[in-house]
Amino acid sequence: MIDPNLPLIDLHRHLDGNVRLETIIDLGRKHNLPLPAWDVESLRPHIQVSEAQVGVMAFIAKFKWLTAVMVDYAACHRIAYENVEDAYEEGIDYIELRFSPWFMSEPNGLDPVGVVEAVIDGVNAGARDFDIKVNLIGILSRTYGPIIATQELEALLAHREHLVALDLAGDEANQPGQLFIDHFRRAREVGWQITVHAGEAAGPESIWQAIFELGASRIGHALTAIEDSALMDYMAEHRIGIESNLTSNVQTSSIPDYASHPLRSFLKHGLLATINTDDPVISNIDLHHEYHIAAPAAGLTPDQIQQAQHNALMIAFLTPEDKASLALKYEA
Q1: Within 13 Å, how many C-alpha atoms sit on residue 182's CB side?
Q2: Is 198 part of any domain?
Q3: Within 13 Å, how many C-alpha atoms sit on residue 9's CB side?
Q4: How many domains is the chain built from?
Q5: How far is residue 157's CA from residue 154's CA, in Å, rounded to a whole number?
Q6: Residue 150 sits in a domain of what CATH number?
């Protein structure tokens, strides 16, 4: 289903949700951590989702052992590097990796600034070694509230030139976007793009707020946009991108099954919706799975799947020159 004449792009992948099981075991042994199992297959059920969870926060609880092994900056560097290698092995041409420095640092008491530095260095090393284009998106984890988000923002701003965008993720239901207006004003002032997790655990009003008060040009998930025809029209007219994540939306019980996913309707409505992986290790998928298995199960036609692939290039946080260069690789 992937169009071989278009670049393959993943715009919504959490770096801290993509830690190899082998790496968890290796770091667990190295640092004498109390892992629940010591071989890949026995560890798998503790990390990966095998059935729908009771909500987004239950899904996020699966991160426990992924962040537990982020014991020092070397571990964070390694995980970032391996994320780039994984993208290369999947045949991805361009990827945007996002991460929350507080979420990564908090379990082991690391300095969030040091985590940001380690992630940047690891991603840059991977991009050089595997010759793949990578951009980084910083996350404010709304779960911790606006005061911690300020500290997290400062850690990201310390290395602002290495990031292209700011995201808001975490507990949407209990930490609404209105609490983070000043944070995102500062992000826009330094020239970052804005993408926001919205409309996953809250209604379309959360998406409206992300667009008008936080300045989002892209929305992660945006599931409840389907409930508001005016919002759908606005997003289509103003080219607000949607980062869809088919499998994780089923696994968080945000939708009951693939067939219920609004992605098909988004594309039919002319929205710039895309196909992405979210947290590949937790979901036990890769981008090819989402294109070849999840997208057809969600009712997408081959033309719609290819339109989603094309949309990813359109809404990527890349310069026009970089977009043209990516496209040119497939026109030659």
Answers
A1: 7
A2: yes
A3: 30
A4: 1
A5: 5
A6: 3.20.20.140
The answer to whether residue 3 is domain-embedded is no
Is 200 designated active site?
yes
- Residues 191, 320: Cα–Cα separation, whole Å: 16
Q: Which residues pair with 221 in a beta bridge?
A: 198
Output 91 or 56, whichever has higher pLDDT.
Answer: 91
Pairing of strands 9-14, 193-198: unpaired
Could you tell me the residue range of the domain that residue 239 belongs to?
Answer: 9-331
Q: Is the Cβ–Cβ distance between 158 and 187 less than 8 Å?
A: no
CB-based contacts of 282, cutoff 8 Å, min separation 6: 17, 47, 48, 49, 59, 62, 63, 66, 248, 251
Classify 106 as helix, strand or coil: helix
Alpha-carbon dihedral of residues 236, 171, 248, 120, nearest 10 degrees?
90
pTM of the model: 0.96
Amino acid residing at 104 = M
Q: Which two tokens stand for residue 172?
A: 């949407």
Residue 320: its H or E element: helix 320-331
Q: What is the pLDDT of residues 127-145, one digit of tens each?
A: 999 999 999 999 999 999 9
Which residue in 106, 172, 200, 290 is the catalytic one?
200
Structure tokens at 205: 């009003």
